[in-house]
């Protein structure tokens, strides 16, 4: 029976190894299918895709620029800037008689927003909202665009605003002070996010490329993290062609969570050209080229051990909730797989040692009783 347990453990182990290696080889396929993409690109030269992001610059010059987005945010080198004005939003609480257009544009899921939604504090001018959209990965791969200390989150939301001194988004997009994007990381939580459901429940209506639907207005503020106080700021670009370097970026430190099921719906419903799944629509982090990332908060290390919390500070519950959220969200699928491996290996090792110990005990017992010596067979023979 013990031997059976051991063999079963080995078998499961083998299955997991196979699954893992086949999933990593399918990632390599992305590279080898470049040939196909090349041909496709020739046929539709204005088209671009995420599998050929290294060649965006050959058609869209700005994509080769020195102030590109996204970037990796290194929390140790971000510089605290006490002067950064805090962000205040207005007009985000839309009533349900405002119809919002939800569009699958073949690159992302995009919700158009009325210009009455605006950022009224945080920048030198008021910025009007134009649209919001998402970036995500796949079941195997987290797909935020920005990374925190080189770690991806499962997904990311971008709320795009344009400077009120320009007539509209397209006019502002080419101006140095044209755009302000508010971005936030989306992780996995235990509960369904009702606010995200207002968009995600309409996913199946826009599953085909270039299809749209209308959804009733709601409080768009609730798609952003609870706290907007802690954020990173840097100067960057659109993360899609034409990659204009006109974005004043804000990435919030507080994160959002959706349920695993909701994330899976986002990753698994939309189609792009040739009816392929629209997933992994994130650009790789770009070089900083000397740019600085500033933060609106000083990153004090997490409290170690007991600490007296001043009455004026937020209660300990808030801190625990926030850090648990980030911890869960920050756990990549790779980490989870690694933990699973570790556990399986431990089980295998335990089963094997127990089995070996049992055999040795049997062996020494047999050795003592010389009459039974003849029936002893080494276990390895039976297993071969
Ligand atoms: C971005 O916004 C900050 C805060 O208002 C401002 O100091 C900075 O000049 C802006 N950068 C650009 C490129 O507009
Ligand atoms: C944006 O504004 C410019 C300048 O006023 C105008 O020419 C253009 O048609 C507008 N574009 C859209 C999409 O409204
Ligand atoms: C938030 O800030 C803390 C402190 O620097 C950092 O450890 C954490 O990784 C940050 N998380 C995000 C999502 O920015
Ligand atoms: Zn984006």
TrEMBL record:
Alpha-carbonic anhydrase domain: residues covered? 46-297
| Molecular function terms from GO | carbonate dehydratase activity; zinc ion binding
Q: Name one Pfam family in it.
A: Carb_anhydrase
Is the keyword Zinc in the record?
yes
Ranges of biased composition (kind: Basic and acidic residues): 32-41
So what EC number does this one have? Answer: 4.2.1.1
Q: Read off the InterPro entries from this record.
A: CA_dom, CA_dom_sf, Carbonic_anhydrase_a-class, Carbonic_anhydrase_a-class_CS
Cofactor(s) needed for function: Zn(2+)
The reactions it catalyses are: hydrogencarbonate + H(+) = CO2 + H2O
Identify the GO cellular component terms for this protein. plasma membrane
Membrane spanning stretches:
336-357
State the signal peptide span. Answer: 1-22
**Is Membrane among the key words of this record?**
yes
Which residues does the annotated region (Disordered) include?
Answer: 22-44, 297-316
Alphabetically list the UniProt keywords.
Answer: Glycoprotein, Lyase, Membrane, Metal-binding, Signal, Transmembrane, Transmembrane helix, Zinc
Instruction: Please give the superkingdom of this protein's source.
Output: Eukaryota
Record's family? Belongs to the alpha-carbonic anhydrase family.
What function does this protein fulfil?
Reversible hydration of carbon dioxide.
Q: What is this protein called?
A: Carbonic anhydrase
Instruction: Tell me the organism.
Output: Clupea harengus
The gene behind this protein is: ca9
């Amino acid at each position: 029976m013990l031997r059976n347990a051991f063999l079963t453990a080995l078998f499961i182990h083998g299955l997991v190894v196979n699954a893992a290696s086949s999933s990593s080889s399918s990632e390599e396929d992305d590279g080898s299918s470049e040939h196909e993409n090349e041909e496709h690109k020739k046929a539709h030269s204005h088209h671009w895709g995420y599998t050929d992001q290294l060649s965006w610059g050959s058609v869209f010059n700005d994509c080769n620029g020195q102030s590109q987005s996204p970037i990796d945010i290194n929390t140790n080198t971000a510089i605290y800037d006490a002067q950064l004005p805090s962000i205040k939003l207005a007009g985000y609480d839309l009533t349900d008689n405002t119809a919002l257009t939800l569009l699958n544009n073949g690159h992302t899921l995009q919700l158009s927003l009325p210009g009455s939604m605006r950022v009224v504090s945080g920048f030198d001018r008021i910025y009007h909202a134009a649209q919001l959209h998402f970036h995500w990965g796949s079941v195997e791969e987290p797909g935020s665009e920005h990374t925190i200390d080189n770690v991806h989150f499962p997904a990311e939301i971008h709320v795009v605003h344009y400077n009120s001194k320009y007539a509209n988004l397209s006019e502002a997009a080419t101006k140095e002070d044209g755009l302000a994007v508010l971005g936030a990381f989306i992780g996995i939580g235990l509960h369904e996010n009702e606010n995200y459901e207002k968009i995600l429940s309409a996913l199946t209506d826009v599953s085909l490329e270039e299809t749209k639907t209308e959804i009733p207005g709601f409080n768009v503020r609730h798609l952003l993290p609870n706290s907007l106080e802690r954020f990173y700021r840097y100067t960057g670009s659109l993360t899609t062609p034409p990659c204009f370097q006109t974005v004043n970026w804000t990435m919030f430190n507080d994160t959002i969570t959706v349920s695993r099921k909701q994330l899976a719906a986002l990753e698994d419903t939309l189609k792009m050209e040739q009816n392929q799944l629209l997933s992994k629509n994130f650009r790789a982090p770009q070089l900083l080229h000397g740019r600085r990332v500033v933060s609106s908060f000083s990153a004090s290390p997490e409290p170690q051990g007991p600490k007296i919390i001043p009455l004026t500070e937020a209660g300990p519950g808030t801190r625990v909730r926030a850090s648990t959220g980030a911890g869960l969200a920050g756990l990549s699928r790779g980490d989870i797989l690694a933990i699973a491996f570790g556990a399986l290996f431990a089980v295998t090792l335990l089963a094997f040692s127990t089995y070996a110990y049992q055999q040795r005990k049997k062996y020494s017992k047999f050795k003592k009783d010389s009459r039974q010596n003849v029936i002893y067979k080494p276990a390895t023979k039976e297993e071969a």
